[in-house]
Specification:
This protein is mainly alpha-helical. Helix content is about 55%, strand content about 5%. A 3-stranded mixed β-sheet has the order 1-3-2. Helix 2 runs parallel beside helix 4, helix 4 packs across helix 6 and helix 5 crosses helix 8. The longest helix has 22 residues. The N terminus is likely disordered. It binds zinc ion (ZN). The site of zinc ion has 5 residues, from helix 4 and helix 5. Zinc ion binds next to helix 4 and helix 5.
């Protein structure tokens, strides 16, 4: 896998904003060894390991999600009475689970590279963390931007520990993935729900540079 060095991230932000968010061809692992399923599994496992350790350091106990549910189209689990929708990934506080449209996620992985999985999954875990740290958890722009910040901080920690390796081109994958990342219902591309692409990238970069403690 992949990721970003801070200086490259800043450069990528500039390029992305200057380029009106054009997507560039996705990079792949040099070895080409990781399948989509490998990346999905690793993103979940590494992210929860990171948060388990982080909570531990704060004298708290991280509560792992109860389930991690791939679904297809409209057949996903409902959350708080709301049906899931195609082309989405979300955290559900009722039930403390994460679900994702598998074909949609795999198409992002194919089109944008494996960085997409390593942004979206840690973002959703960011909500699972919020639900444990806050009372009255609800989704709004502030919560979305904090989840992006958490995702950046998680990835920086995983790169720092050697669990993930950054590769050339990965920063572009991550930035374009952030533009595509949404979550609650059908709001993936709605700035009113998630913040603008610029806000999201800045928040992600802040977490990457300063760690989740600064989010
Ligand atoms: Zn979100």
């Amino acid at each position: 896998m992949n990721i970003v060095r801070p200086r490259l991230l800043v450069l990528a932000l500039v390029l992305l904003l200057a380029g009106c968010g054009l997507t560039r061809p996705a990079s792949r692992d040099v070895q080409g060894a990781d399948t989509f399923e490998d990346d999905i599994r690793a993103a979940r496992t590494l992210t929860e390991s990171f948060w388990t350790e982080f909570f531990d350091q704060q004298g708290m106990t991280y509560r792992p999600i109860a389930d991690f549910i791939p679904y297809s189209g409209s057949s996903g689990p409902s959350c708080g009475g709301e049906p899931s929708v195609p082309n989405n990934a979300f955290y559900c506080p009722e039930g403390h689970f994460i679900a994702y449209d598998q074909a949609w996620m795999e198409s992002l992985w194919n089109d944008m590279g494996d960085g997409s999985v390593y942004v979206i999954i840690p973002h959703e875990f960011g909500h699972a963390v919020q639900a444990q740290l806050r009372t009255g958890f609800e989704l709004n722009v502030q919560a979305e931007l904090q989840a992006d910040c958490y995702a950046g901080g998680t990835l920086a920690a995983l790169v720092g520990s050697g669990s993930l390796r950054a590769q050339p081109g990965d920063e572009d994958e991550l930035m374009t993935s952030l533009e595509a990342a949404g979550d609650p219902t059908d709001d993936w591309l709605n700035p009113a729900a998630h913040g603008t692409a610029e806000q999201r990238q800045a928040s992600f970069a802040g977490g990457y540079d300063d760690g989740v403690g600064a989010c």
